[in-house]
């Protein structure tokens, strides 16, 4: 089955055909590093990561580029706040470091590069000059604006007519623009004080005057890049004039992605991206999860509390283009699903590695169910990266493993090995790690339990059986299941990875 994706540009689900049959050029609009990354960012990151993994599974060499927007009035608004830094560059660096740590904690594949806007100002200026030369942009009072009326296909991504589009940009730009819908490619001077004030946290003493942010020399005077031109310059620098897949949040369709198309295609006369995939927003109650609204759970808090596997099980429980709700109930459901998968995997590993796993035992139901699950997983992923159905396929393997090992004296070695390998292989597509290291407080809890069990064993060896039993009872009172085996004590945490 061929991979099909839902293309926002056409509104249709289409067969995916990259320009080069062996390579995929994938660009994701990355984070504006002005606040700690939250689960809304993690949801998009994880789904882009799954896309990357599945494309590689299909045999493509994936060139994945994800940018950092490190020039923005929201970043300037954090200057002097807490220990974030004393200028825009310092604040951005602080949050980039934190973001990269969160990406690693989520078990994301590394992108080919993580370009920063501040490193690509020369390319941005070159692109703006090209647009002026081609007649699509104009200078006004040291700023440069894109003339939306000059680009006949403007609105094709968001399906809007030009006359229906309201003014873009700050109100003080209106006197400089030919058309209210024109957008800034280059802004003269530094960041406006009102814009900084709008994004500062209330009640925080920043200990400094209102900063203006970084500025660069240009043919039109000192200034800063416009937001939209940044992604065009960075993506074309690292991936060329035409992308295979451009991914971003649904809230970026207009104006950001619409403007990316206009300025890129006006500069190159080439199609900017063949497939536009948009991640739906993450709901927190009745609103989207957002840094600006302050209703978010940070990535490091979530990883620390639930661990990477539970979190990725939660985030892949819905497809990238379906809305997802964060709540205690939905997290609890993810914990239960991961627990089912992990317990079944451990049961299968224990059984397949035991002397009771036999070469000539053939469990037809087990083998057929695993093969059916593999087929279902592949069909789901080829159907627009449908992680919800793909996850269900893995859970069906857990069910058949449990049915096979419960109460049986001899096991189907080949069938169980196939089940174990399938969970490992396809679980990795969703970024799940069976039998691996835990992260967050789960790892620390494991270390503490190991220490307690070591003390318990020392008590038993010393003949202090009553104290050893007390230690076991205390662990079980905390919800930690302890089981004594011939090879020593094993345990299970109450909320495992």
Automatic annotation (TrEMBL):
One GO cellular component, as annotated: cytoplasm
Motif 'KMSKS' region positions after renumbering to this chain: 288-292
**Which reaction(s) are listed as its catalytic activity?**
tRNA(Cys) + L-cysteine + ATP = L-cysteinyl-tRNA(Cys) + AMP + diphosphate
Q: Which residues does the UniProt record annotate as the domain Cysteinyl-tRNA synthetase class Ia DALR?
A: 376-444
Q: Where in the cell is it found?
A: Cytoplasm
Cofactor binding annotation: Binds 1 zinc ion per subunit.
Motif 'HIGH' region extends across 31-41
Source taxon at top rank:
Archaea
Coiled-coil annotated spans: none
User: From its record, what is one biological process in GO terms?
Assistant: cysteinyl-tRNA aminoacylation
MF GO annotations: ATP binding; cysteine-tRNA ligase activity; zinc ion binding
Gene3D superfamilies in the cross-refs? Cysteine-tRNA ligase, C-terminal anti-codon recognition domain (1.20.120.1910), HUPs (3.40.50.620)
Residues recorded as binding Zn(2+), renumbered to this chain, are: 29, 231, 256, 260
**Residue positions binding ATP:** 291
> What keywords are annotated for this sequence in UniProt?
Aminoacyl-tRNA synthetase, ATP-binding, Cytoplasm, Ligase, Metal-binding, Nucleotide-binding, Protein biosynthesis, Zinc
Cofactor(s) demanded: Zn(2+)
- Indicate yes or no for the key word Zinc: yes
Extract the HAMAP family matched here.
Cys_tRNA_synth (MF_00041)
Q: What is this protein called?
A: Cysteine--tRNA ligase
This protein's species is Natronorubrum aibiense
